[in-house]
Amino acid sequence: MNVVLLDGIEDAGRDELKSQCEGVVAALRAAGHRVHVFDLRRLHVSDCTGCFHCWVGTPGECVLRDDMRRILAAMVEAERV
Fold first, then answer.
1. Calpha distance 10→52 (Å, rounded)
2. Rounded to an integer, what distance in angstroms lies between the CA atom of residue 10 and that of residue 48?
3. Are 38 and 3 in contact (CB under 8 A)?
4. Which residues 6+ apart lie within 8 Å of 21 measured at CB?
5. Is the pLDDT of residue 13 over 70?
6. Are 45 and 68 in contact (CB under 8 A)?
7. What distance in Å separates the CA atoms of residue 52 and residue 61, rounded to the nearest whole number?
8. How confident is the model over 44-52, as a mean pLDDT?
9. Do residues 63 and 47 lie in contact, with contact meaning Cβ atoms separated by under 8 Å?
10. CB 79 within 8 A of CB 3
């Protein structure tokens, strides 16, 4: 199974939650699943401008050039997010 994990853990309390996430990722990988982890704090994701270009201009493709493109591409391939 192909899994995407979005890590949006804030700095406060990060150590405990981070170790739990790492445990989940390790268990999934040990079971033979492919896991792609995105650390959202380290990525640049712009706010939606509401232009609707992704609906009418280039369906399914945002005009903003940021890390969301990588995340969405991985989510399309994933069986679980």
1. 30
2. 22
3. no
4. 5, 7, 9, 37
5. no
6. yes
7. 10
8. 94
9. no
10. yes
Residue with structure tokens 């997010």?
81
Confidence of residue 61 (pLDDT cuts 50, 70, 90): confident
What distances in angstroms separate CA 36 from CA 3, 48, 53, one per listed residue?
6, 24, 28
CA distance 3 to 67: 18
The residue type of 25 is: V
Q: Which residues pair with 37 in a beta bridge?
A: 5
Region 55-77 average pLDDT: 90
Q: Yes or no: say if 78 and 4 are a contact pair by the CB < 8 Å rule.
A: yes
Two tokens at 2?
């192909």
